[in-house]
């Protein structure tokens, strides 16, 4: 037990359980195999994995891609709940803070769905009730008549002040990009506040959050370039990473792609991200950049987890990998249903 002095038995237990769970996630080779399969074949494979229970339970109500969508969402939410149940003390506090990310995702999904007149059932299929807004709250929001009523129904919740301020302009422009960014700004500011207590657990969690913010800011810069947006980039900047607001704004003014990449490499302080940027020579679609950044983030998180085997890191590694497993299976199913070439679907997977 050398090196475990001062680490509680519940912490050792939960971190060990996370490694066991992580080992059961689908390997890269399985995704490669699925890329060459039909949707019914992929469904059969998924039925033989940890998603079997949800597929069996929902099989009488849903069929085809709808069944997969709901089963994946339910499984993810239940799995996150099970992890919270066994996670002790401050590790639980940080895990809960991390899971509030789903509140933003779910509320934006409901608002977009209502705005575009989607059926309530279709919106519900892709919700993941894993944050502080549970199934009961989400069902109440789904029952509201329209997006305006959804925003009103969130009075008293963390997200409400930002939604009340940003939603009118988002509705008018038809774009939720700025509102989404403002919600993430609030989310990260709250998390940094909660994790800045000074203990080693908080410092480790902050290191993860800083990397997450860096990835989001870099991706935003690539998105702004792709969309040719000239607006004040500072508004899209998220505070808390290693890049300054001034550098972020300056990068958004650089027209030449090679010059942009060179400057970006010099402004980013995270070595693995710098290495990744060195490998990008020509312009690529934003979704490809997003996949590459996620891979770097996951590799970095794995390294931190190996260095600190009984900490928040093994929990975060599993939560993230599980999230991307569900995202990959969704992308595979949707891609196959839309008859996209395997090569195209593969570019959207995080492997």
Structure, described:
- This protein is mainly α and 351 residues long.
- The protein has 19 helices and no strands.
- The chain has helices at 9-23, 28-34, 39-47, 52-58, 64-86, 89-99, 101-115, 120-125, 135-142, 147-153, 160-173, 177-195, 200-226, 245-251, 257-267, 271-278, 286-307, 312-337, 342-346.
- It is globular.
- The model has no long low-confidence stretch (mean pLDDT 92).
Average pLDDT value?
92
Number of strands: 0
Order of helices and strands: HHHHHHHHHHHHHHHHHHH
> What is the structural class?
mainly alpha
Q: What number of structural domains do the residues give?
A: 2
The number of helical elements comes to 19
List low-confidence stretches. Answer: none
Strand percentage lies at: under 5%
Q: Rg to the nearest angstrom?
A: 21 Å
Q: How helix-rich are the residues, as a percent range?
A: over 70%
- Overall shape: it is globular
Distance between the termini: 34 Å
- Biggest sheet details: none
Which structural traits does this protein have?
351 residues, mainly alpha, 19 helices, 70% helix
Question: What is the topology?
Answer:
Elements: H1 9-23, H2 28-34, H3 39-47, H4 52-58, H5 64-86, H6 89-99, H7 101-115, H8 120-125, H9 135-142, H10 147-153, H11 160-173, H12 177-195, H13 200-226, H14 245-251, H15 257-267, H16 271-278, H17 286-307, H18 312-337, H19 342-346
Helix pairs in contact: 1-18, 3-18, 5-18, 7-10, 11-12, 12-13, 13-17, 15-16, 17-18
């Amino acid at each position: 037990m050398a090196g475990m002095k001062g680490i509680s038995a519940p912490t050792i237990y939960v971190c060990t359980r996370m490694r066991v769970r992580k080992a059961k996630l689908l390997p890269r080779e399985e995704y490669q195999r699925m890329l060459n399969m039909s949707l019914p074949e992929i469904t059969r494979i998924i039925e033989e994995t940890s998603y079997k229970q949800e597929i069996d339970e929902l099989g009488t109500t849903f069929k085809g891609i709808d069944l997969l969508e709901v089963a994946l969402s339910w499984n993810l939410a239940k799995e996150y709940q099970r992890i919270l149940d066994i996670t002790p003390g401050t590790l639980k506090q940080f895990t809960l803070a991390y899971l509030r990310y789903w509140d933003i995702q779910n509320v934006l999904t409901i608002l977009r769905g209502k705005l575009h007149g989607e059926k309530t059932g279709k919106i519900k299929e892709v919700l993941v009730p894993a944050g502080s807004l549970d199934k009961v709250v989400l069902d109440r929001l789904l029952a509201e008549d329209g997006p305006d009523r959804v925003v009103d129904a969130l009075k008293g919740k963390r997200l409400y002040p930002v939604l009340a301020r940003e939603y009118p302009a988002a509705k008018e422009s038809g774009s939720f990009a700025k509102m989404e960014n403002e919600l993430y700004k609030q989310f990260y500011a709250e998390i940094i506040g909660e994790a800045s207590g000074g203990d080693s657990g908080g410092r480790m969690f902050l290191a993860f959050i800083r990397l997450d913010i860096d990835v989001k800011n870099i991706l935003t810069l690539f998105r702004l370039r792709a969309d040719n947006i000239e607006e004040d980039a500072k508004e899209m900047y998220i505070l808390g990473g290693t890049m300054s607001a001034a550098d972020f704004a300056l990068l958004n003014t650089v027209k030449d792609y090679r010059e942009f990449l060179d400057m970006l490499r010099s402004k980013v302080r995270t070595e693995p991200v710098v290495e990744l940027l060195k490998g990008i020579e020509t312009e690529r679609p934003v979704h490809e950049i997003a996949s590459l950044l996620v891979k770097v983030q996951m590799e970095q998180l794995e390294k931190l987890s190996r260095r600190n085997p009984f900490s928040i890191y093994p929990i975060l590694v599993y939560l993230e990998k599980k999230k991307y497993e569900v995202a990959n299976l969704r992308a595979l199913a949707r891609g196959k249903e839309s008859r996209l070439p395997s090569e195209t679907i593969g570019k959207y997977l995080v492997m």
